[in-house]
Amino acid sequence: MQLSDDISFMNIKQVFNASNSLSFLRLLLIIPAWYSFNYLDIITAKYIVAGLGIFAAITDILDGYLARKLNQVTEFGKIIDPLADKVLVVYVVLSLFMVGEIPTYYFYMIAGRDILILTGGLIVSKKLGKVLPSDYIGKATVLAVSFVLLMILLNVDTHSIAYLLLYYFSIGLIFISLVNYILKAVKALNKEQK
Q1: How far is Cα 30 from Cα 89, in angstroms, rounded to an integer?
Q2: Which residues, including other chains, have CB under 8 Å from residue 14's CB and lie 6 or more apart?
Q3: How many CA atoms lie within 13 A of 86 on its CB side?
Q4: pLDDT digits over 104-133, tens only?
Q5: Which of 3, 52, 127, 190 would give a disulfide with 75, using CB separation of 3.0 to 4.6 Å?
Q6: Contacts for 26-32: CB closer than 8 Å, 24+ residues apart
């Protein structure tokens, strides 16, 4: 089933199923995050965005569970779920980078990984006519980066052992997930050509 089939008028209920609706909700969390960083003092904004991040993590777990439990896995869901994961994370990374709370190289690693995966994903989707689903390595990477951001938002000591372990673990996962995605894409394209 291709993405265009998912979005046809007859399948609109399938597109807006329970799991995809939670992904849409998660995507909309960018609005209160943007408002918080632009119109509230930084301390208040950080706590509000931390709360939004926790809520996003809960909905992410729930939408994955519902998609499998209710057999609601769709091509559209394979796009909206990782997109919803990334939008809030990238916005928070950018906002924290702008106020000097995360290192420049960390910002560029996260942004670079996401740009490469998005670009590669579009190319692969066009050639295969379907979307490569996110996997546990990709989810673990977003989760690790999200926890690092959450610790920064909650003003955890960035020199603590717990923070540093998670921080360097997230950097390792950024590289591993990128290589994993490239290998998965190449394998899918080779399989299609046979």
Answers
A1: 9
A2: 6, 72, 74, 76
A3: 18
A4: 999 999 999 999 988 988 888 888 888 887
A5: 3
A6: 26/56, 26/59, 26/60, 26/63, 26/84, 26/85, 26/88, 27/80, 27/83, 27/84, 27/87, 27/88, 29/55, 29/56, 29/88, 30/87, 30/88, 30/91
Q: What is the pLDDT of residue 1?
A: 46
Q: What is the pTM of this model?
A: 0.86
pLDDT for residue 9 is more than 50: no
Hey, CA dihedral for 24, 29, 34, 35, is it positive or negative?
positive
Give the model's pLDDT for residue 2: 52
Tell the residue number behind the tokens 């960083």, with chain if given.
37
Cα separation, 148 vs 144, whole angstroms: 6
In this prediction, residue 10 has a pLDDT band, given cuts at 50, 70 and 90, of very low
pLDDT, mean of residues 98-104? 95
SS (HEC) of the chain: CCHHHHCCHHHHHHHCCHHHHHHHHHHHCHHHHHHHHHHCCHHHHHHHHHHHHHHHHHHHHHHHHHHHHCCCCCHHHHHHHHHHHHHHHHHHHHHHHHCCCCCHHHHHHHHHHHHHHHHHHHHHHHHHCCCCCCCHHHHHHHHHHHHHHHHHHCCCCCCCHHHHHHHHHHHHHHHHHHHHHHHHHHHHHHHHHC
